């Protein structure tokens, strides 16, 4: 059966397409089904993911998977967190968000940060037991950009184990080790054990 992918973010759509192809799951991005973005009024990753999954399921009548994710920076007491997409304001772009982050961390010695991803699967809009999974990816914020791959904050997110930024990783490697890749592995496992 088809599942709607409740995201309007093209970077996420690309990563999920290759991840789901690996797992043999049939997902369609919400835009292709005429679903528009919904206001994210929650105060946690979980709440926002549920809001997005419920909306997409409501509009399409299909089961839905949503991703709410963000960058959590230690020295900024967790900012930008759930506000990562719009850190630099209403018309924020990946570029302006990174500029704002680099400014906020100027002169800061503690560069520790992690990406966080919450995924939600709902069988229908009124599903009382959504499946939830989370993934975390530890790294450090550089003081300038490196790499062209990925999206969002990837060019300044340095992975010590790989000695490069997330934007310099092969796509398949990012999917293997990222917050999104980990969260999806866990979600698919719990979908299998719940519906087997
Ligand atoms: P949807 O709500 O439509 O899915 P969005 O971009 O608004 O799209 P979020 O509210 O979950 O999604 O914000 C996530 C932001 O966190 C995203 O826009 C990036 O700035 C950042 N982010 C999340 N995962 C990332 C990754 O793998 N690499 C770089 N930045 C990431």
From TrEMBL:
One of its GO terms (biological process) is nucleotide metabolic process. Keywords: Hydrolase, Magnesium, Metal-binding, Nucleotide metabolism, Nucleotide-binding. The active site is at residue 68. It holds the Pfam family Ham1p_like. It comes from the Bacteria. GO terms for molecular function: dITP diphosphatase activity; ITP diphosphatase activity; metal ion binding; nucleotide binding; ribonucleoside triphosphate phosphatase activity; XTP diphosphatase activity. Pyrophosphatase that catalyzes the hydrolysis of nucleoside triphosphates to their monophosphate derivatives, with a high preference for the non-canonical purine nucleotides XTP (xanthosine triphosphate), dITP (deoxyinosine triphosphate) and ITP. Seems to function as a house-cleaning enzyme that removes non-canonical purine nucleotides from the nucleotide pool, thus preventing their incorporation into DNA/RNA and avoiding chromosomal lesions. It catalyses: XTP + H2O = XMP + diphosphate + H(+); ITP + H2O = IMP + diphosphate + H(+); dITP + H2O = dIMP + diphosphate + H(+). The lineage of its organism: Bacteria, Pseudomonadati, Pseudomonadota, Gammaproteobacteria, Alteromonadales. Mg(2+) binds at residue 68. GO terms for cellular component: cytosol. Homodimer. Its EC number is 3.6.1.66. This is dITP/XTP pyrophosphatase.
């Amino acid at each position: 059966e088809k599942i709607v992918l409740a995201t309007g973010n093209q970077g996420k759509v690309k990563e999920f397409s290759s991840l789901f192809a690996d797992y043999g799951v049939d997902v369609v991005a919400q835009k292709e089904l005429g679903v528009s973005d919904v206001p994210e009024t929650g105060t946690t990753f979980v709440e926002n993911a549920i809001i997005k999954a419920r909306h997409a399921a409501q509009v399409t009548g299909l089961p839905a998977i949503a991703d709410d994710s963000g960058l959590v920076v230690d020295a900024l007491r967790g900012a930008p967190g759930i506000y990562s997409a719009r850190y630099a304001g209403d018309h924020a772009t990946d570029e302006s968000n990174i500029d704002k982050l680099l400014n906020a961390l100027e002169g800061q010695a503690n560069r520790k940060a992690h990406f966080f991803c919450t995924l939600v699967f709902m069988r229908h809009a009124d599903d009382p037991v959504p499946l939830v999974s989370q993934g975390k990816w530890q790294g450090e914020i550089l003081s300038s950009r490196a790499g062209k791959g990925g999206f969002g904050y990837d060019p300044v997110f340095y992975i010590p184990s790989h000695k490069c930024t997330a934007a310099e990783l092969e796509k398949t490697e990012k999917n293997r080790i990222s917050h999104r890749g980990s969260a999806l592995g866990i979600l698919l496992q719990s979908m299998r054990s719940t519906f087997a």
